[in-house]
Amino acid sequence: MALSFLISDTHARTRSLFVAIMCGGLAGCGFGLLMPLISLNLEAMTGSGAQAGINAAAAALAMILATPFIPGLFSRISPRALLAASLAVIALGILVFPAVREVWVWFGTRFLIGIAVTIVFIASETWINQLAKPERRASLLAVYATVLSAGFGSGGLLLALLGAEGWAPWIAGAAIYAAGVLPVLFLRGPGLIPPSRDEGSPLAMLTTARLAPAAILAGFLFGALENSFFALMPVYGERTGLTTTLIGLLMTTGALGALCLQIPIGNFADRAGRMRTLALITLAAVAVPLFIIASSGFGFALFPLIFLYVGLASAYYTVGLSVIGERVQAGQLAAANAAFIFAYGSGSLVGPPLGGMAMDWINPHGFLLALSVIAAIYLPIALRSWRR
């Protein structure tokens, strides 16, 4: 009887983990499809790069403005119902883009979808952190990050297959998110433990951030370093004389690094210590951009360095979330994850402009020097937290 209960309990936990990780994969796939799809359509509609940039900023702005209030929603609405409703809102919102070809409508729709996507991310990450066994927390979150990266890559593949014109890519994007609604509602298992009213307040986000400041700042670094790399590495490659083909291959290599290194790094963090791993990642994040500068004239020598750098920068996400999980109680996890997402959004806004200005100031290597300096500023924090 006890064995039957144990098996049933394990299966229920597995179902919940499947749903939470699936939500991350769906979000990644939708992102990988929608980000370039919206930009390409705006370019065709307006011929303005600024319009594409402003529309993309709407999603980041939604993330920063909505994040402090999302844990409070979990305390008032069933998290499972809120997650399913968010997926449905995203699916329906995507269909607005081909139906209404007005730039201002696209901006508002992108903002609304940005709020719903932020709910999906915070809910799925909080849920996984609550379900994770302490000794395997980083490994499990590494699986989640790998599925997220794979989803992002498959979204780009869908764009390549379906193109950017007509209704087909939009319908595919809507179907991706709609596909997640039924498993969220009907695959039974342990649900996300909602915070209390006090634990879900915007003030609670600041309180929980003080419990694991190094982990929250890891979210900032992840946003700043990864987004700076993908935004500016093509420009850097062009300024250093690389062909368009080589630049494309370098970007693919970076994405593969993010996909392949999360699970090994997560396993290492569970064995060697998560704060120790953050400190080691930061040492590498300071050094590798300098090696890339030194190798910039040697073409193919860049590939292993880019693979390593993006894989390590992405691990700030995996390991930072696992540190939050070990430092924060279950009821506080939603607020702590919200703080992490807020830090990520802030890093995504701050990093690329700083990198771009540094590249113009010290052409072309200032961009990589800026990445190294950002990591160097964080290094004493990571080392001090490791010693504690």
Automatic annotation (TrEMBL):
Bilayer-crossing regions: 17-40, 52-74, 81-100, 106-128, 140-161, 167-187, 208-225, 245-265, 277-294, 300-319, 331-350, 362-383
Stretches assigned to the Major facilitator superfamily (MFS) profile domain: 1-388
Keywords: Membrane, Transmembrane, Transmembrane helix
InterPro entries: MFS, MFS_dom, MFS_trans_sf
Pfam families from the UniProt entry: MFS_1 (PF07690)
Protein name: MFS transporter
Annotated organism of origin: Glycocaulis abyssi
